[in-house]
Design brief:
five-stranded parallel sheet; alpha/beta; two-stranded antiparallel ribbon; about 25% helix; about 140 residues; Rossmann fold
Length: about 140
């Protein structure tokens, strides 16, 4: 408490969607017995948006936490987290969400989400006022 301020203060966070905003996630269909399932390729083969990565670094330098979110799978989130860590891209967290649940949670979140950065115009409509659209490999 300082100067009689009883309110809690929280740093605003920026959420960046991984797929088609930060990187083009690629994968292939693999056969497991009689079933086929999609499996992501190594993140080194993904097309990463360098301008967007530099923008994340600029926010990190100014102490604004940036979180990367994906709607694909936990495996993709883990691969992206390892790649970002290996190349020293400072993100606060990498999480996987189900799109509908994430969209509904934005209505009641009180944890300082400043904006949700995405390149997909259909998903942007689901974020309400928090949605911020960029083009592929753009700044935010």
């Amino acid at each position: 408490m300082q100067d009689g301020d009883l309110a809690t203060w929280e740093q605003p966070r920026i959420l960046v969607v991984l797929e088609d905003t930060l990187a083009h996630v690629t994968g292939e269909m693999k056969r497991k017995g009689i079933r086929k399932s999609w499996s992501p390729n190594d993140p080194e083969s993904w097309d990463w948006g360098l301008v967007t990565l530099k923008t994340i670094q600029r926010y990190a330098f100014n102490s604004v936490p940036v979180e990367v979110i994906t709607f694909v799978s936990e495996e993709v989130a883990g691969l992206a987290a390892r790649w970002l860590n290996y190349y020293d891209v400072e993100v606060a967290d990498v999480q996987c969400y189900e799109l509908g649940h994430f969209q509904r949670s934005l209505a009641w979140r009180r944890n300082g989400v400043q904006r949700v950065v995405d390149a997909d115009p259909e998903r942007i409509l689901r974020y309400g006022q928090l949605g911020y659209q960029i083009t592929w490999n753009g700044e935010f």
